[in-house]
Amino acid sequence: MSCIEQMKYEILLDRTTYKDAREYIEKNSDEVFYVSPGYKIFRDYHIIGVPPIALGAKGSALTFTYTKPCYGTFVLTVDNEDSIKEIEKLREKEKEKGKGAPSPKKSKPSESSKKPPSSFLDMWKK
Amino acid sequence: MAGAKVLLMMGCPEVPIQTSIALYLSHKLTSSGFDVTVAGTGAANQLLKVSDSDGYYVKKLVNLDKTLENVIEKRADFDICFAFMHNDAGMTYAATMSAISGAKLYSIVFGRNADALAETIEFDCEKIIEKAAHNPIQLKKKLDSILEGMVE
């Protein structure tokens, strides 16, 4: 079990395709960073995904994809000290790439007709 | 190719033919001299364990996420990988394997939405597509022709 499942997170989008999850992050983040599959966040979570993998920052929150083989891809967000560190790390990585800071994006929360479950435990109960 | 390291990457086991084809491929490849590892989710692995309780067909059975982590951390890699997929998550795992591993990748795309799912594959791989969910025979035939080429 990845440390993600033990963290306090919010589910923004559940059981979707990887493509839709990436688009959600791109549309709903202030900054978007692109990394390769396997990129590690929060100590031990290697991101599973179809390149390019998008990570979003909105304030101090980090938004990312989480794929479960039987349930599809989720968009999760974590807002704590660790997410601040991860966002800083991503900004540093961008600078090292020599491409400058990622382009700021307007935040436009998507409207969903159904409220996503608040945790994986809720989903298992469904 | 004998001795080559082969990974069979199983996804969600809700479509029945995955388990039988994984058992078949593992045994066939092992018998041909390949070093076969089967990686799956908890449920997929339990299905295999119960079906092959003495480990006759599957010699090495490991956790899928742990295996990917080992490849990412460069603690392991494979020469050939067969990735089973019948949903978008399976395709996503295979895309990850394609990006992190040097293995020659075969995507086994099956289930009722096999054709549509196969169209979403953007990474480099050989696709084996069969719209079957319950009867593994047509998929087995397609895999047999691939295996013939591998053991020659």
Question: What can you see in these coordinates?
Answer:
- The complex is a heterodimer of chains A (126) and B (152).
- By secondary structure, chain A is an alpha+beta fold.
- Chain A has one domain (3-99).
- Helices cover 26% and strands 29% of the residues of chain A.
- Chain A has 3 helices and 7 strands, in the order E-H-E-E-E-E-E-E-H-H.
- Chain A has helices spanning 18-27, 81-97, 120-125; strands spanning 10-16, 31-35, 40-41, 45-46, 53-58, 61-68, 72-78.
- Residues 106-115 of chain A have low confidence and may be disordered.
- Chain B is an alpha/beta fold and 152 residues long.
- Chain B has a single domain (5-151), classed as Rossmann fold.
- Chain B has helices spanning 17-31, 42-51, 64-72, 88-100, 114-119, 137-151, and strands at 5-9, 35-40, 61-63, 80-85, 104-110, 126-130.
- In chain B, helix 1 (17-31) runs parallel beside helix 6.
- The N and C termini of chain B lie close together (8 Å).
- The A-B interface holds A 2, 17-19, 36-38, 40, 46, 48-51, 67-73 and B 11-12, 14, 41, 43-44, 64-65, 68-69, 71-72, 87-93, 95-96, 99-100, 120, 122-123.
What is the topology?
The complex is a heterodimer of chains A (126) and B (152).
Chain A: E1 10-16, H1 18-27, E2 31-35, E3 40-41, E4 45-46, E5 53-58, E6 61-68, E7 72-78, H2 81-97, H3 120-125
Antiparallel strand pairs in A: 1-7, 2-5, 3-4, 5-6, 6-7
Chain B: E1 5-9, H1 17-31, E2 35-40, H2 42-51, E3 61-63, H3 64-72, E4 80-85, H4 88-100, E5 104-110, H5 114-119, E6 126-130, H6 137-151
Parallel strand pairs in B: 1-2, 1-4, 2-3, 4-5, 5-6
Helix pairs in contact in B: 1-6
